[in-house]
Structures are given as C-alpha cells and as structure tokens.
Amino acid sequence: MTRLPTALRGLVTVLTAVLATTATTTTARATPDAEAPPDFVALSSVDPTILQEIRYFTPHNFVGTRVDGYQQPLCILTRPAAEALHQAQRRLLRQGYTLKVYDCYRPQRAVDHFVRWAEDLDDQTMKGEFYPDVDKTRLFEDGYIAEKSGHSRGSTMDLTLVRLPALPTRPYRPGEPLVPCYAPQDARFPDNSVDMGTGYDCFDTLSHTLDQRVQGRQRANRLLLKSTLEDLGFVNLAEEWWHYTFKPELHPDTYFDFPVSWKSLSGKH
Q1: For 7, phi and psi rounded to 5 degrees?
Q2: Angle at 199 between CA 172 and CA 224, to 5 degrees
Q3: Using an 8 Å Cβ cutoff, are 264 and 117 in contact?
Q4: Among the options 53, 119, 141, 240, which is catalytic?
C-alpha cells in the first residue's frame, strides 16, 4: 500500500469527516421567503378542532419575546404527523378532551435564537417561571438548549390536553410577576389545560414524563396523553411530558429553516 504524504493524509481525513457529516445530517439553508416542502401542511387544514397556543409567537416563553422565525401563530407539520394527530384527537374528543399544541415545526433560525439567548447570561428575564432552580450557565450541559432540534424536521410537536368545554386563557402581560412552573396549578400562570404537574417548557426534572414525584391526577393526565399518542406511532421524549415525535419521520436528517407562516406553505391552505 502506497503511503500518502503527511499533509495529504491530513487533507483526506478532513474531507472524509466532512463527507460523513454531510451524509448523515442536512441543514436546509433558506431565505426569509423560503417555502416549505410540499409534504408540510397547516395542522388546522387537517384538523381544525385541535387548539393552538403557539407560545414562541408570544412573549410568554423562556426567552421572554417572540422567537425568530415565528411570523404567525401557526402549527405546521409533515402531513403524516398531522393526520396521526387528527386520529388522536378523534379518540380524545370521545372522552371529553381536546389536544392543544404549543409548538410544532420550529425553524432553525428559532433554534439559533435560543442558543444566542442561552449564551447571554445577563438575560434572566423569565427565570422566575421557566428555570427557577437551574443556573443559566448549565442550560447546554443539562440538555435544555441545543444547537439542533427535532422540531426543525417537521414531525415533532409540543402539546397537552384540555378538558372540554375549553375555557379561554388570558394573555401574558410582559413584566407581570412570575411564578415557578412547578408551583401548584392554581398558583402558576393560568392555562386552560389539565394539570400535568408542571407548566409547559418547565426546565426541571419534574417535567420528566414518568417522574415518580408526579402522582394522582397529574400522572393520570400524563399517561392519558402518552398512551393515546404512542398507540398511533408517536414517541415521547422522556425528559419532557409535552414533547412527541411521529415515527417514522419523513425527514429524519434534515433541519429546515423556512418561517412559520401561511406564505411558507405555498398556498396549500
């Protein structure tokens, strides 16, 4: 076997690594006017009865402001994921519940916004509600923030259950007093959902779906959501009771970056 010069061997090693990375993960780079692929749909076009409270379009989230890429309060998903949610909704309606989504497809620019926020240690605006017991210097190490999100692939959503008839939820007023996300339900920020033991996006181990400290009605609510969705092909992220991915994913290796807007759907609505 012919031995390559040291410099050339190094170049080959680098190129091999780059090609391997490219083969396994693709990030779709997009302009602000980029369109979604044709297999993405608005959830409301598949099931208009599922409630939507898209938190990252509002300031009521751990960042404290509308997140980059959320141009409209809209749930966008791959069609198979949306149709599977429709089947889950049909089952839950018969039991007196409706689904409510907090987040669906999430553009890469939104994930980048999360990363910039996490690196800004001086911004602690929403700590009192969303991460009261977590030092912001540990958000990456503890897995609360990452540079890629499965949401950007289009088959992952954050959701909860609401008992029917659904009552309205008042809007968050920036600057209002914050209450820890793990406080009792009647003390937390009001949400028309059932009691899951913590609020949405609570950076705390109590958010782990099967945390043994969560019992009674709270645990039963988590298990109802979990069993209903898992029976239809969804997989729960064990650290977040609200986080589910429909399998198999249409785009398991692609992280999209088109904005959350009707315009991105190319008139499919």
Answers
A1: -60, -40
A2: 130
A3: no
A4: 240
